[in-house]
Design goal:
By secondary structure, the protein is mostly helical. The chain is built from eight helices and no strands. Helix 2 runs parallel beside helix 4 and helix 3 runs antiparallel to helix 4.
């Protein structure tokens, strides 16, 4: 569930002001839910309905910061509104408080309110009809359903869709995170492989250069020195070429060519020849 804001959002302030101004406009024109001579109107004064209207508008400020408190207070205000001529704005704002309590309230509140309002709707239809035995008694339950059950059910549907969207977004973020981790691991493994390959190739060529340079310096033989310098040059060129190739792989990020250090049967002869040129006594047994 999302963290509730500490202060009323601007939208809630706008809803509260719109409900209050709308109720005042209806009150100014003398429009109420019931006429002043209705037997249910206990407080028929012109100013009586402004109290529930103002309290309900104040509850709209708490529709997201304290939805359950707003609904309980709004219910008391609606009950008080039934003792006056009543205001349509108060009734409309109460339905919004019921909706907000399900959408922004706790999970327990979101589960219970549709059931509670549903039971009240059925009771509002069956009990009055059982007492008065007239079809008009069923209208009480319909009114309860329109004011309570309908907004609570709508809020539950909206909340379920929102939770499903949040779950899908979280799963997508986790999938993206796992994919990024796999990519990083693959890049790390590839860099480790290149580092090993670079070490093996350069170490091989540098070893050959060191051996033949030592031989060229220790032997006073022009032929031997020339052969040693030839091997040194070949290993230097090959080592530089391999280093450039691997650096190119690191810069470009991909290389379709097979690394020259990869042992294959086709390159076995060249590998043996290179080892012999480096001064090693290597033989190739074709039988194996």
């Amino acid at each position: 569930m999302a963290v509730r804001p500490l202060r009323p959002p601007r939208f809630d302030v706008a809803v509260a002001l719109a409900g209050l101004l709308g109720g005042l406009l209806l009150w100014g024109f003398g429009l109420g839910v019931r006429p002043g001579d209705d037997p249910m109107v206990l407080f028929g004064g012109r100013w009586a309905l402004l109290v529930p209207l103002g309290v309900t508008a104040g509850c709209e400020l708490l529709r997201r910061t304290a939805p359950r408190t707003a609904l309980l207070t709004g219910t008391l205000a609606l009950a008080a509104d039934t003792t006056t001529q009543g205001s349509i704005a108060t009734i409309v704002m109460f339905t919004d408080l019921m909706y907000a309590a399900v959408v922004y309230g706790s999970p327990a509140t979101a589960r219970r309110l549709p059931w509670i309002t549903g039971v009240l709707t059925l009771a509002g239809m069956l009990v009055p009809y059982a007492v008065w035995r007239v079809p008009e008694a069923l209208l009480i339950g319909l009114v309860v359903g329109a004011l309570a059950f309908a907004p609570a059910s709508t809020g539950l549907i909206v909340r379920n869709h929102r939770d499903a969207a949040d779950a899908a977004r979280l799963q997508a973020e986790q999938t993206a995170l796992l994919a990024e981790m796999d990519r990083v691991q693959a890049v790390t493994a590839e860099r480790s492989r290149m580092a090993r390959e670079l070490h093996d190739l350069v170490a091989n060529h540098l070893s050959a250069i060191a051996i033949h340079s030592t031989a060229a310096l220790s032997l006073d033989d022009p032929g031997t020195s020339k052969d040693a310098l030839t091997v040194i040059r070949e290993n230097s060129v090959q080592g530089l070429s391999e280093m450039r190739r691997l650096i190119g792989i690191l810069r470009d990020g991909a290389d379709d060519r097979e690394p020259s250090a990869t042992p294959t049967l086709d390159g076995l002869g060249a590998l043996v020849a290179g080892a012999r040129a480096n001064g090693l006594d290597v033989t190739l047994d074709a039988g194996h």
